[in-house]
Structures are given as structure tokens and as C-alpha cells.
Amino acid sequence: MAIQAKVTSLDALESFRANLIVFLTTAHRCVDEVGDEVRRTRYWLQNEQRMHWEGELKRRRRILDLAEQELFSAKLSGLRETTAAQQNAVIKAKRAVEEAEEKLRAVKHWNRNFESSSDPLVKQMEGLRFFLDHDMPKALAFLVQAQKTLEAYTEIPAPQTAPPTVTEPESPA
Predict the structure, then answer these.
(1) Where are the domains of the chain?
(2) What confidence tens digit (pLDDT) does each residue in 120-171 have?
(3) For 69-79, what is each residue's pLDDT tens digit?
(4) How many CB atoms lie within 10 A of CB 143?
(5) For residue 76, how many C-alpha atoms fall within 13 Å in the half-sphere facing its CB?
(6) By C-alpha distance, which of 42, 162, 54 is closest to 110?
(7) Whether the predicted model's global pTM rises above the 0.85 cut
(8) What is the distance between the alpha carbons of residues 160 and 31, in angstroms, rounded to a whole number?
(9) Nearest-angstrom CA–CA distance, 9 and 13
(10) CA count, 13 A, side-chain hemisphere, 60
(11) Which residues contact 79 (CB under 8 A, 6 or more apart)?
């Protein structure tokens, strides 16, 4: 019994190959964007946010010092109404300093833990990149070869089948 392949559409194979190429291009771009985003986040944590909250803490401490000086001056002057306003300003400034200290602690915490949190995910992305760079080109080459083989197969003319011949039984001689 002869084994036959029934090829119905080489266009579908070509379409799949073209879509796979588009997917690979998009996937490479996405993997690159994720890597860039990890680097930007690391820089943002290590530099921008740390410097921002250190500067903000200094600024808020100066405001607190000024508010405490105004409160002290108001107490010395003996004016009761202004003392309450200055006390509220000191309380508000202390809260702002506490908030800046908390934000700075959070930035330092994330700065210390960023690598351990992101490294497992980055390694997975590197695995995906390896798959996209090494395995998928092999798959594309296989598709191209399969397509060429099938195209060559379709070029071969179908064998002519002769009508079955009736053979007469041999007579015993």
C-alpha cells in the first residue's frame, strides 16, 4: 500500500511562516523593552529617587526648624493665638519630615532588594531571548525546507494508473 500526502494549501504554510516572522520581530522588541525598563527602574531607584527623597528630607527639616523657631518666638512674645498657629505648623512640618523619612527608607529598602526581586524574572527573560534567538530561527528554517519539499512534491506529475488487467488463470499443461 502506497503512502500518500494530501497537500491542500501551501499558502497556509507560507502565511504561517510570515506570521511567525512578525511574531519574532515583535517578541524581540518586547524583550528589549523589558530589559530597558529594568535598567531604567534600577537607575531610577539608585539615583533619582534616592537623591529626590534625600533632598526632600533636608528641605522639610529646614521647614520644621523654621516652624519650631517661629513657635519659640511666639511663646516668648506671649501671644496665645499665634502660638496655636505655630504649633499646628510644627505638627504639619513634623508629619512631612516623617513622611520623607519613610519614603527614603522605602527607596533604600527597594534599592537593596531590587536585584533579588528582579533577577529571577530577568533570567526568565534571558531564557526567552535564547529561545527567540536560537530555537526559533531553526524552526523557521525547518518551515522553509518543508515548504520547498512540499512545493517540489506538488510539481511531480501524478503517476498514470493503468486499468487493471484481467489475467486468465493458467491452464495446467
Answers:
(1) 27-117
(2) 999 999 999 999 999 999 999 998 998 898 888 877 777 777 666 666 666 6
(3) 988 888 887 76
(4) 16
(5) 6
(6) 42
(7) no
(8) 54
(9) 7
(10) 20
(11) none
Cβ burial of 150 (10 Å; 0-12, 13-18, 19+) is: middle
Is 83:75 a contact under the CB 8 Å cutoff? yes
Are the beta carbons of 135 and 12 closer than 8 angstroms? Answer: no
Euclidean distance between CA atoms 145 and 71, whole angstroms? 85
Distance CA 66, CA 77 (A): 16
Question: Which of 127, 111, 139, 104 is closest to 21 using CA atoms?
Answer: 139
CA 129, CA 145: separation in Å to the nearest integer?
24
Angle ∠(64,70,75) on CA atoms, nearest 5: 125
Q: Round to whole Å and give the CA distance between 17 and 143.
A: 7
Sign of the alpha-carbon dihedral angle for 107, 111, 117, 122:
positive
